[in-house]
Fold this protein.
Amino acid sequence: MSDEKRVGIVLVSHSAEVAASVGELAKGLAGGASAVPVAAAGGTEGGGLGTSAELISAAAASVDRGAGVAVLTDLGSAVLTVKALLADDELPDGARLVDAPFVEGAVAAVVTAAAGADLDAVEAAAAEAYSYRKV
Amino acid sequence: MLDADFFRRWMTAAATSVDREAERLTALDSAIGDADHGSNMQRGFRAVTATLEKEAPDTPGGVLTLAGRQLISTVGGASGPLYGTLLRRTGKALGEAAEVGEEQLAAALRAGVEGVMKLGGAAPGDKTMIDALLPAVDALASGFAAARTAAEEGALATTPLQARKGRASYLGERSIGHQDPGATSSALLIAALADTAEASGE
């Protein structure tokens, strides 16, 4: 299974620290998920809070192994920038914005991708995280 | 007829206007947003004029698609993909023509505004840039000056509205009583178009 192509995961947040930390959290909770390519695209290129189209494009390209790329976002301009990039075909073929809660969705996506699942299954697992009620 | 140079002058006029009004846009955004709309738009439109000077596209559609791409890359807030989509969709609708007429521009701009509505999910009355852009596109059939007036009135009319999209929507009723920053910058963009048309005798 180690030579199977894994789905790539891109985490887009307004904050570089949030994106990177959620990536670390997801990989940590997924155990032996080091085979899953995960890239963070947080904040602006200048290091401030915001969204960078360049960082998102670079992150998506860096995790594209040919099995598709699941992009998870926090809110506002992160969502809109990914949608605009997808509409203009500026992300790799098979890249997809996944509608999921950011932290829980990232964990579900990385765990599922680590099991060798395809992009549809990764997307479904991430989206299903919405249905987990805490109260 | 409107050529590539007309559209370049429009973008330059928009950049000048955003520079002049940046503080006001940020002040409006500090009331109901995160106080970065002026500086974000300033950074974006400065990058647009710089890249248009360097690459000098030779069609109206080329000018607007390049400007839109630049806004998506450089703004860093929601206005980047929103204004970027507006200009790119408008530019794509203009196609490869070396010159376009006013009616063509009006139709293309409508396609651009529809692209923004689809991207952001906003409808008229949600207290967004759509509240300035849609009336402007509707009025463009009667001329550039009518479009400017419609956009400015549309922006002013956002004041009593409650925000239903974007960060301002988290404020609920407290968003009422403030003019929307995005509608305000949209009115600047349309005013820059009208100014450019008047200066060139259109």
